Amino acid sequence: MTDERPLGLDGLEWRPEGVCVYTGDALALIGAVEEVLAGFARDWPAEHQSAPPLLPAGLLERYGYLTEFPHLVTLQASLDPAAREEDGRVLAPTGNALTPAACYHVYPRAADADLRAPRLFRVGGLCFRHESGCRPLARQRVFTMREIVCLGAPADVSAFLERARAAADRLLGGLGLRHEWQVATDPFFSAASPARLAQRIVPSKWEARAEGVAVCSLNHHRSFFAERHRVRAGGGPAASACLAFGVERVAYALVRRHGPDRARWERAAARLPAAG
Amino acid sequence: MTDERPLGLDGLEWRPEGVCVYTGDALALIGAVEEVLAGFARDWPAEHQSAPPLLPAGLLERYGYLTEFPHLVTLQASLDPAAREEDGRVLAPTGNALTPAACYHVYPRAADADLRAPRLFRVGGLCFRHESGCRPLARQRVFTMREIVCLGAPADVSAFLERARAAADRLLGGLGLRHEWQVATDPFFSAASPARLAQRIVPSKWEARAEGVAVCSLNHHRSFFAERHRVRAGGGPAASACLAFGVERVAYALVRRHGPDRARWERAAARLPAAG
After folding, report:
1. What value does the mean pLDDT take over residues A20-43?
2. I need a labelling partner for A57 at 20 to 30 A (CA). Which of A91, A135, A163, B128 fits?
3. pLDDT, tens digit, for every residue of B13-47?
4. Is B27 within 8 Å of A21 when comparing Cβ atoms?
5. How is chain B split into domains, by residue range?
6. Residue of B12, B23, B54 to mutate, interface with A, max A Cβ within 10 Å
7. Relative orientation angle of helices B247-258 and B262-270, to the nearest 10 degrees
8. Does A191 score more than 60 pLDDT?
9. Do residues B229 and B107 touch, judged by C-beta distance below 8 A?
10. Which of residues 44-73 of B touch A (CB under 8 A)?
11. In sequence order, what are the residues at sequence separation of 6 or more whose Cβ sits closer than 8 angstroms to the Cβ of residue A63?
């Protein structure tokens, strides 16, 4: 399924670390996609917050990420200056991980809330995953995630998922992309838990695939994050869900679909309402 | 000298990892400073490039960073999934470091060039330093650096330094900041090298300090980076220099100077030409 041909995009320089340096057209393309997604996010009455690149590794443990995605985990290490003279330089633990998903910075901030109405969040930032089989824009070890997150009563979260899917359909259609929604197989729950079986019965993650990559995903966490932070809604356990775009993936699909000529993907991006 | 009073800025949430989550006014403040610095950068006829958050740890070794700043180094580690079943999860080296300075992504791209005219670069991105004594905006373990870099013949680089200092004076003055340039004591060369002594005689780094923090620095690298990448200019060894702003530091100084009331720092930022 993977298209191995070079993208032919001017200013896209691949680095063996699993990231790109952008200049020229590639820099403009990333900027154009950011504007499109900022315009999309402004249509939601969402609280806007940033997602810093560091979080406590303990949070990943709490979310089962270290067990479920050990191959993707990116940790922060430092050198221990105190050990330098006698023992040579040694790695010192910092207790920090690099952020793997922007919305991990949303749930802890809502800890212990009892929500009367659903809350929507707009959150985005750099995400780090130690992927293998990396390719420019399509699969990088650092990429930019832009999300709309809903936290609230289960019925409100289900309604959000429907609205979010329809909105993503309009956005991707407006960009001239032809996408298909597919149930994703990523585990969201511990392998030791019966929840993993439940996921096979009731899908929890859908990916919109265009040009061979998942440009966005809809994730229905049910009570997974809310429970871990004791969030309640209307007197019962709360639920959550998110719609997450990969900026570089959208950029990739745009170039694959419309070609590397800047005028063509700029025209596709300009068809959408600009960020206000 | 350090002002320990809280900033009183709405939407600034400190995290023990050494970073902030921004909402509300804090998010707007960072955005306003980014716009001011983008407008500033557009006045220079510079090649624009991104600075990804990862680089090879070997590049830091080559630049003497591991020896000079061992306490600041931030490395990337992953878990070794292959070792998981028999040995438990273990840290695996990745060979990558987190970027400590945006311009480290400029010099390798110019390797082996023989420049007929000086080249200017505009580069920026997230930088990671394992600082101690962290405080919101003033000293973070992840911050945003925006730089103008000059690479060329020594005389051209010296001329750039003068222009850059005058331009920074105008920018900081326009923001209503009162700054002073100070010679910085950071070593730029290996302790084992006579170059360190030379630095004491001929300053290589000046910091513009306002409200108790260095909001930007002027760095005269002389042939340090150019030599390591075999860059020549007009038949002789090339030199380089950079003007580097810390986005969060400028934001910090604006709030300390004008107060946390959004209308006041917005007015100060609006006095400058907007990013076009």
Report:
1. 97
2. A135
3. 999 999 999 999 999 999 999 999 999 999 999 99
4. no
5. 22-270
6. B54
7. 120
8. no
9. yes
10. 47-56, 66, 70-71, 73
11. A104, A224, A225, A228
Asked if A21 lies within 8 A of B51 by C-beta distance, the reply is: yes
CA distance A245 to chain B (A): 19
pLDDT of A33 higher than 70: yes
- The DSSP letter of residue B102 is G
Q: Which chain A residues in 17-46 lie under 8 Å from chain B, judged by CB atoms?
A: 17-23, 27, 30
d(CA A263, CA B78) in angstroms, rounded, equals: 40
User: ∠ at Cα B191 (B190, B196), nearest 5°?
Assistant: 80
**Each residue's pLDDT tens digit, A91-144:** 777 889 999 999 999 999 999 999 999 999 999 999 999 999 999 999 999 999
- The pLDDT tens digits of the residues spanning B58-105 come to 999 999 998 888 889 999 988 876 665 555 556 777 889 999 999 999
Judged by CB atoms closer than 8 Å, whether chains meet at A23 and B48 is answered as yes
* Complex ipTM: 0.91
Comparing A83-87, A173-177, A263-267, which segment has the lowest mean pLDDT? A83-87
pTM for this one? Answer: 0.92
Q: Does B141 touch chain A (CB under 8 A)?
A: yes
Q: How many CB atoms lie within 10 A of CB B122?
A: 21
What are residue A37's phi and psi, to 5 degrees? -70, -30
CB atoms closer than 10 angstroms to residue B266? 15
A105 vs B contacts (CB less than 8 Å): 21
Q: How close B70 comes to chain A (CA, Å)? A: 6
Q: Which residues of B231-243 are buried (b: 16+ CB within 10 A; e: fewer)?
A: bbbbeeebbbbbb
**Which chain A residues are closer than 8 Å to B16 by Cβ?**
56
Nearest Cα residue in chain A from B30: A50
B76 to A73: CB separation less than 8 angstroms, yes or no: no
Proportion of chain B in helix, strand, coil states, percent, rounded to 5: 35, 30, 35
Report the amino acid identity of residue B192. Answer: A
Q: Which tokens hold the place of B109?
A: 């791209």
Contact B23 A49 (CB under 8 A): yes
A24-55+99-270 is a CATH 1.20.1050.10 domain: no
**Cα angle vertex A219, ends A229, A258, to 5°?**
140
Question: What is the residue-averaged pLDDT of chain A?
Answer: 90
Contacts of B51 in chain A (CB under 8 A): 21
Third-level CATH fold of B22-270: BirA Bifunctional Protein; domain 2 (3.30.930)
Extract the tokens encoding A144: 């930019």
